Amino acid sequence: MARTAKKGGDTAHESLSVRHDEDAWTAEELAEVRTELESDATRLGTEVHEAEQDLVELMRSYSDGAGDDQADAGAATWEREHELSLANNARDLLMQTLRALERINQGSYGDCEACGNPVGKMRLQAFPRATLCMTCKQKQERR
């Protein structure tokens, strides 16, 4: 099992888990990931708020439904479900983003939540919300 690579002093970014074939996180690398996650959290928070507002408006405008033919009712239902799906997707991504920031703050960023092995710095740089190593992610997708 590959464990944490440490170089120099024991600072927070250096204590994050990395694979045995990767260098420890530098302060700059971690700052870049944190900035990306914080930016995503802000954007996603706005998206969730806007999608929820759109959904409220759709519910108000179509709550009556009297006089709608089947095509109008179907279109209204599809539009509400679409907005609900957008809101839920943005909310899920926001929660994943906030969880990644929390893991950075706790020092557990980079640990696979299933097996405890390192997720991999390159994987996290490509997908900062990753919580599973490739092996565990592949197992999850096969289920």
What does this protein look like?
Mean pLDDT is 85; it is low at 1-10. Helix 1 (27-62) runs antiparallel to helix 2. By secondary structure, the protein is an all-alpha fold. The protein has one domain: DksA, coiled-coil domain (Four Helix Bundle (Hemerythrin (Met), subunit A), Up-down Bundle), CATH 1.20.120.910. The protein has helices at 27-62, 70-106, 121-126, 134-142. The protein has 4 helices and no strands. The two termini are 24 Å apart.
Q: Please bin the fraction of helical residues.
A: 55-70%
Overall radius of gyration? 21 Å
Query: In this structure, how is the largest beta sheet organized?
Result: none
Annotation field: number of helices: 4
Described by the principal axes of the CA atoms, the overall outline is elongated
Number of domains: 1
Residue-averaged pLDDT: 85
What's the end-to-end separation, in Å? 24 Å
| Strand content range | under 5%
CATH superfamily: DksA, coiled-coil domain
Low-confidence stretches: 1-10
Total count of strands: 0
